[in-house]
Design goal:
With 87 residues, this protein is mainly alpha-helical. It contains four helices and two strands; from the N terminus they run H-H-E-H-H-E.
């Protein structure tokens, strides 16, 4: 790992530490954003989705229902050339 990439990784960890005093959801989003940024910098094709959004609504979907939807979305992302998915 090069010096610049190590610095970016340390910065991402530092940003995560700032968010660690907030809710778990905010930490999760911070980590997803930091990892997305690193992948973008390196030109790695990927897709990203917050899986909680698939369950959201009334009534809240059961895990088995939103997991089926997540599998479909990931499949569509793969069809579009994105082999890596951040969830």
């Amino acid at each position: 790992m090069g010096e610049k990439r190590e610095a970016r990784a340390r910065q991402s960890v530092d940003e995560f530490g700032v968010g660690s005093h907030w809710s778990p959801w905010i930490r999760q989003v911070s980590v997803l954003d930091a990892l997305s940024t690193l992948l973008e910098i390196d030109g790695v094709p990927f897709g990203a989705i917050e899986s909680e959004e698939l369950a959201r609504g009334l009534p809240w979907l059961a895990t088995s229902e939103w997991l089926r939807q997540l599998a479909a979305v990931i499949g569509l992302q793969r069809d579009a050339g994105r082999e890596l998915s951040l969830v």
